[in-house]
Design a protein that fits this description.
207 residues; alpha+beta; Glutaredoxin; disordered N terminus
Amino acid sequence: MKTFMQTSLLTLLFLCASAFTFITPPSDGYSIGDKAADFSLKNIDGEMVSLADFKSAKGFIVIFTCNTCPYAQLYEDRIEALNKKYASKGYPVIAIQPNDTDIKPGDNLEAMKQRAKEKGFTFPYLIDKSQTVYPKYGATKTPHVFILEKTSEGNIVRYIGAIDDNYKSADLVTTKYAEDAVDALLNQKTVTLTETKAIGCTIKSKS
């Protein structure tokens, strides 16, 4: 019995050590009202994309997501729906894959290209290869949403959190957090619910 307990404890410690190796520590990142810095990341078409490229945008729906997370997969169609609904109104989806691809090879650029083709993504799907962008935002999950409003002062963070209140199915959603925030901004109103808890897989990093 003692040997079994010792073995179990060692196994638990090993798993915990592995978790600390592969799971990104929390980051302070942006708060509501902060100005979000621009970035330049590679898209699945090989082109570099920055927020500054979208001259006519009124703001952005920045979503940190990936191929391999089951939560992210459940939200793929809803992310596409957000882009189709709001890109033409000035709020395009900018999706960013933040995971370390040595840890998650299923999230590498080639896999991203394939996934985008299979799902028919119409939004930019960028890779944060150097893992320098998501910590600035404070993203910790996939998916994790940051809605920015373009102003004369820069891209201001107006909402952080989940896409909606039910990851299991779009049919079970009662509150569409991201849509409500964008609708408020489009109507020049204040976003009333500015932060919710992002539900998803932890972003993977070696650091």
